[in-house]
Structure formats: structure tokens, C-alpha cells
Amino acid sequence: MKKLLFVVNPKSGKEQIRPKLLEVLDLFSAAGYEVQVHITQRQKDASEAVARWGEGKDLIVCSGGDGTLNEVISGMMELSAPPLLGYIPSGSTNDYASSLEIPKGTMEAAKNVLEGVPFAIDVGRFCGDRYFVYIAAFGAFTEISYQTPQDKKNLLGHQAYMLESVKGLTSIKPCRMKVEWEDNVLEEEFIFGMVTNTISVGGFKGLVTQSVALNDGEFEVLLIRNPRTPRDLSNIISYMFLKEEPNDYVFKFRADRIRITSEEPTDWVLDGEFGGSRQEVVVENLKERLQILRSADKGAIL
């Protein structure tokens, strides 16, 4: 009998997995899987569970938001032979699921796990010992994802991020950084930066190019330097939220490896979870490191 590890965050999003949990388990059992269920209890619980019980499994399935998916993937990176990954999104924004066009409905996503085709995805390695699947970011707005209370996320969903973003405008603090990639060097004061592998960030699709491939071995990088006037800040916010054309304060490029050093410790966020405070960061793209199941009609590549 095939073996499946099912990691579930029951508090994610509006707790939509709860009323469907037995139905999902029945679906997997009927498909011939011996199912081991782990209900997460705390941060890093999912990654520890996958590292402990994932070896030898035929399939690992994650139900939760982007943060839970990050933990599951981090745990899979510790396995000698990572199995296929299935994803049942149940978070507030589900950026990565949107990029993969995984169904939003619980049962539709569960059926996609059984009927989908393997799709190789890049994984980001952060400072040699942490991982992310769709975003590593610093600066303005980044703390919103992990500081917004779960009950507010559940109640307001995407609107919660919008509300907290507005509150954070008054506390923007620039940081002087040196950014290096390939033969390029950029030194500026930045208020925001992100290294991504997604078409959606915080539910917004205008922050990154729509020609993103999740398996091309490259990241999309966006950096915003410190505005000099209130009008400059207004233009930046308009660009971020209203999809207006880039301006002189916005830098965009692609890279498979990037090194960022700052004058003082800077807080980073990995897939919506706190990634630590660091003065030197190296981000590397691990091309097609894992395989996730996506809809069969989407094919093997984006």
C-alpha cells in the first residue's frame, strides 16, 4: 500500500479544512493510500514532522497557507529522496497556489493531488540553512504577514493585509545596502526589497512580471529605494498597489544568486514568516529541486 503523510494546519485561513477533513481522508484512503495525519501545533512543527516521518513516503500533502507550505518544503529539503508534494491551500492569500493555478476549493484541490501531474519547482535557499518557495523580502510592509493576528486574517482575509499596510506607512525606515548579482553592484538606501518566484505577492499580481516561470532557475528581484519627497512615496505606493508603470525608485532584474549586505541588521520574511535579522544575506536558486502536483490540463511547464 502506498504511504501518504498529510500535514494539516487547522487554523489556517478561515479554517476551511475542518469540515472537509474526514471527506479528504476518505478520498485518499479510497485511492489506496495508507494515510498518516499530523495536525500542526506550533511554528516549525510542520517542518519537523516532515523531516521525522517523510522518509519513505510516496506522497506528502500539505493543507494550510503559504507559511505552512514553506515549513513542509523546508522539511522535505532535509530528506534524502523527497517524494511528490500535494497542496490543499487554505490560507488567507495563497500566493503560491495561485501561481500554480491549484484549485481553491478544498475537495477540488484534494482531487487535484490524486489526478494532477508532477511539476518541478525551484526552491530558494536563504543563507545556506533556510528555504523559501516564493518570496524572501525585507523592509516596508514585510512584517505585516507575520504580525497580523491569525483571527484578523481569518475574518478579513486579503483585506487584513491592506489595512495593516496602511498602518505601516508611517514607520518606513530606509536601510543602506549593497546588492550584488552576476557582475552587477548596486548601492542605495532601500525601503523595500523582494526576491520572488511567483506571480502574486500578498494577493497583488502587479508587483512582479506575469512572464514568471517557476522552474527556470531564476528569481525575479524588485528593490525600491528611499523616496525623497511625499510625492515620490505616493508614486511608489501607486506602483505597488495600482499597477502603475515603474519609476526611478524601482529596480527590477532577474538572478539565480544574489548577495545583500546592510549597514545594520535587517529583518527578513520568508514566505510570510519571520526569517531572522541579518546584515549579510545570500539567496540561491535551487533549480527544479522538488516536484509538486498541479492540474493535469496545465501540463508539465508553465
Briefly say what this structure is:
By secondary structure, the chain is of the alpha+beta class.
Helices, by number, come to: 9
DSSP E strands, number: 13
Regions with pLDDT < 50 over 5+ consecutive residues? 144-148, 152-163
The class by helix and strand makeup works out as alpha+beta
CATH topology of the largest domain: Tumour Suppressor Smad4
- What is the element string, with H for helices and E for strands? EHEHEHEHHEEEHHHEEEHEEE
* CATH class descriptor name of the largest domain: Mainly Beta
How far apart the termini lie comes to 32 Å
The biggest sheet amounts to: 9 strands, antiparallel
Which geometry do the CA atoms define?
elongated
Strand content: 35-45%
Calculate Rg over CA atoms. 19 Å
Q: How many domains make up the 3D coordinates?
A: 2
Mean pLDDT: 83
Percent helix range: 25-40%
CATH architecture of the largest domain: Sandwich
Question: Can you walk through the features of this model?
Answer:
The chain is α+β, with helices and mostly antiparallel strands and 302 residues long. It folds into 2 domains: 2-122 and 289-297, Rossmann fold, CATH 3.40.50.10330; 132-287, Tumour Suppressor Smad4. 27% of the residues lie in helices and 37% in strands. It is built from 9 helices and 13 strands. The strands form 2 sheets. Strands 5, 6, 7, 8, 9, 10, 11, 12 and 13 form a 9-stranded antiparallel sheet that branches. The longest helix is centred in the last third of the chain and has 13 residues, at 230-242. It is elongated, with a radius of gyration of 19 Å. 42% of the residues are buried. Residues 144-148 and 152-163 have low confidence and may be disordered.
